[in-house]
């Protein structure tokens, strides 16, 4: 049993052999106590004085032989345990490497099936999941590093097929490197998609703002008097500074269209920028804003002139009524007062 060369062909078999070897070691330990007791009893016969049932030298030789056999048995047991533990270390290494490969294959399938989302909400959700995966990747990297160290220790012993270990380590390292590259590319795609959808949301806001602004500046409501004209929205040119210039919109359109094409959003981007250019690129909103400001100022000037004219009319009416009702007093003092007012 102790000189057997069967060291197991997989981890479970090695564990079973180690359990059996443990039972054998326990049996050897029990027999060691029995042998030592028998040897001690035998040596007493070599120390007898007078009658000698056997030659004392023969007894000593036999005791020494049994002791030597027992020590050799213990050495064989220790050697076999070391071989079995080395075998367990080897198959543990291979099992951990297989688990690492299985994990890598699983993540490769997940990354191959992942999209980059169809809107801002889905991209944010995928980005959160990807961050969780990056955390798992870091933990798995640490475990793989430990397994690689085990493989290097096994190679240093040169007791178990180092060629197979080296090939396995090389294969797993290459797959791991490829996984990290794919993970990095997917992260970049998510970041590009996030930037794209954020830009899309901003341009949607801009289009809505431009449409609302155009509705205001193209209104024909100039008020009906001084007050209503002053409270009418006056969209001065500085209020339109949110407008992008045609060159800036062209640059944004080109860059975001390139990102959009990567994810199948080219049609949406084309429509989006057509809306923006139709409203803002030609400067129509700013031009109409300037014209409306001038029209409102002109209307305000007219209404202010009407207000002043009305005040003059009221004043003239008051004076006409006073003149029509004025009578010449009969008393001198009263005449002087009226004359002074006149």
UniProtKB/TrEMBL annotation:
InterPro entries: Spectrin/alpha-actinin, Spectrin_repeat. It comes from the Eukaryota. SUPFAM superfamilies: Spectrin repeat. The keyword Transferase does not apply. Keywords: Actin-binding, Repeat. GO terms for molecular function: actin binding. This is Spectrin beta chain, non-erythrocytic 4. It comes from Manacus vitellinus.
């Amino acid at each position: 049993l102790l000189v057997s060369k069967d060291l197991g062909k997989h981890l479970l078999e090695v564990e079973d052999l180690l359990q059996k070897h443990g039972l054998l070691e326990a049996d050897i330990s029990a027999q060691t106590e029995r042998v030592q007791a028998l040897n001690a009893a035998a040596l007493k016969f070599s120390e007898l004085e007078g009658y000698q049932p056997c030659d004392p030298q023969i007894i000593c030789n036999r005791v020494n032989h049994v002791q030597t056999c027992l020590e050799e048995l213990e050495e064989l047991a220790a050697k076999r345990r070391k071989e079995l533990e080395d075998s367990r270390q080897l198959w543990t290494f291979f099992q951990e490497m297989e688990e690492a490969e299985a994990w890598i294959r699983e993540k490769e399938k997940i990354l191959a099936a992942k999209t980059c989302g169809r809107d801002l909400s889905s991209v944010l959700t995928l980005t959160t999941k990807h961050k969780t995966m990056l955390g798992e990747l870091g933990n798995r990297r640490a475990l793989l590093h430990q397994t690689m160290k085990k493989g290097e220790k096994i190679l240093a012993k040169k007791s178990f097929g180092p060629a197979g270990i080296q090939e396995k380590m090389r294969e797993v390292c290459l797959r791991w490197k490829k996984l990290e590259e794919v993970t990095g590319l997917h992260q970049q795609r998510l970041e590009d998609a996030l930037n794209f959808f954020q830009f899309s949301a901003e341009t949607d806001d801009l289009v809505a703002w431009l449409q609302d602004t155009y509705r205001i500046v193209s209104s024909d409501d100039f008020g009906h008097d001084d007050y209503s004209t002053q409270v009418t929205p006056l969209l001065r040119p500085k209020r339109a500074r949110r407008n992008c210039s045609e060159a800036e919109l062209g640059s944004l359109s080109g860059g975001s269209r390139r990102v959009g094409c990567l994810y199948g959003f080219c049609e949406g981007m084309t429509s989006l920028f057509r809306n923006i250019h139709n409203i803002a690129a030609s400067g129509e909103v700013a031009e109409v804003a300037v014209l409306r400001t001038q029209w409102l100022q002109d209307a305000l000037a007219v209404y202010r002139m009407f207000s002043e004219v009305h005040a003059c009319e009221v004043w003239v009416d008051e004076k006409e009524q006073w003149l029509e009702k004025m009578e010449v007093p009969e008393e001198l003092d009263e005449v002087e007062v009226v004359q002074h007012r006149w």
